[in-house]
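Retro notes
What went well: the complex prediction finally ran end to end.
Inputs used:
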Amino acid sequence: MSNIPSDLKYASSHEWVRNEGDGVVTVGITEHAQGLLGDMVFVDLPDVGDEFAAGDDCAVAESVKAASDIYAPVAGEIVAINEELEDAPENVNNDAYGDGWLFKIKMEDASELDELLDAEGYAESIDEE
Amino acid sequence: MTNRTVLFDKHIEAGAKMVDFHGWEMPINYGSQIEEHHAVRQDAGMFDVSHMTIVDVKGADAKRFLQHLLANDVAKLTVAGKALYTGMLNEQGGVIDDLIVYFFNEEFYRLVVNSATREKDLAWLTKQSADYSVEITEQPDWAMIAVQGPNAKSKVATLLNENQLAAVEGMKPFFGVQAGELFIATTGYTGEAGYEIMLAPELAANFWQQLLDAGVKPAGLGARDTLRLEAGMNLYGLDMDETVSPLAANMGWTIAWQPEERDFIGRSALETQKAQGTEQLVGLVMEQKGVLRSGLKVIAEQGEGTITSGTFSPTLGHSIAMARVPAGVNVGDTVQVEMRKKLVEVQVVKAGFVRNGKSVL
């Protein structure tokens, strides 16, 4: 029932990925994931310049209820982080696909995008939970 | 089959996210538990607590029975409507439940006990009352609404008639009064002023709506937990249970040792524990990023302890917790908590972090 924009790609671990062109993607967590976690109180982001393989844990979203690891959906180097979340972690709750973005990755291999789920595939994956 | 309170439809109308809470379908939040928390600290919020168990104890032996059953002494209650917080202990001095007892007269008391412990509480009451002339009657249908916050009383007042207003006028904390169709008590679980109101089920939905119209915000179990933890109030099952002495759960003040001849259940075990010394329940404060959670290990010079309840404090903006630690750990000490494979330093404080909207640290 939650909002799953059709122009994004998804990981089954509840990250969304927006292709910004030039090999850069923006990553956040889905509306469904923020709903499960509840009110966000801290978001621990990686540093710009950090490098991750696809599937590495690279950030932590901590809500009143629980701490949840966030995984790099594709391999690459962090080129930007959403510093506003330091003071406004609730942006992840209020605008998961907009102001609640977490970080941007410069992809090592753009073809990894094709391995992610589309909106329909993600919707099915959360139905099965 | 999960139970639903008579206010179920009102929760759905208000957009509640419902969860299973010990067999009851209850609202965890209505969108944001942090906003609900702030509403209670800064204005007025309300909780459906109809799942709680209300038990009336009546009869010629009511006083004598409760003096045996409870660690606190109902003989302290001499003014009609006065209430008392107490543990109900087993013979080993463990806490079967914590509860509030209201006094009407020496042959009529009312207990409010936890819903999660309802069955064992009722079984224990029945078993222990066998040799007493008392009648134990549960009031399973009653609704109960807690209205809490600095503006709670004034908002409730707009719903009361002249006689009800007169009945609650100047009522001190920890009192209850039957005011027309409402039983209104100055109790709560948030550290704010306010009322807990018991009423007949057929009146509850309308009363809830009137409170909404008066500007009282609905608040769910999520906010209830962060509010009670900030107030340093125990949650049964986390901060104490049947294996924990009230002396190790910050409930020493609820044990009435005098008169010495009062033989309440658990007394001799408690006397031994007191002589030997017990662990203690303290508060922890962590100002850096992260959230202390129940079950995490606490490491002090005197030995290891455990966090019993932990959360992010919306009022303070950092994490707080209650922890059971060895004797000898003092307020002001720094101890370590094992978090996500790292040791983090936290401060030991008295369990109790926020009262009446303000930090007490």
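What we learned: The radius of gyration of chain B is 20 Å.
What to try next: split runs per interface for comparison.
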